[in-house]
Amino acid sequence: MDNSAQAPYFLYILKSAVVARYYVGISTNPHRRLEYHNGFEKGFTSCYRPWRIVYTKAYSSKVEAHVAEKTVKERKRSRMIERLIGGGAI
User: Fold this and answer.
1) Which end of the chain is more exposed for a tag (fewer CB within 10 A), N or C?
2) In this structure, how many other beta carbons lie within 10 angstroms of the beta carbon of residue 42?
3) How many C-beta atoms lie closer than 10 Å to residue 48's C-beta?
């Protein structure tokens, strides 16, 4: 199977417009996920709408994106997220 045409996976970070909350996820289409979080999703993100994308980074595989997501979530979240948004590295 040729994976060269596979869409990249993105690590994305959303920020709530109403409270100091972030949401970290992965997707092949972060803008479609933003629409979902702002409109249809009934879980954690529904309580803090509206959301906006404050960070994205492309990875060549789902595994790489998932490792990056896990790294962000395991560390001191807000400090790590604000460093990433400011241009820092994971």
Assistant:
1) N
2) 7
3) 18
pLDDT score at 80? 79
Domain assignment of residue 66, yes or no: yes
Report angle CA 53, 58, 64 to the nearest 5 degrees: 120
Residues of the domain holding 70: 9-85
Q: Residues 27-39, buried b or exposed e (16+ Cβ, 10 A)?
A: beebeebbeebbe
Q: What is the pLDDT of residue 66?
A: 97
Q: Tally the domains of the chain.
A: 1
Q: Global pTM? A: 0.85
Does any domain span residue 20? yes
Angle at which helices 62-74 and 77-85 cross, to 10°: 120
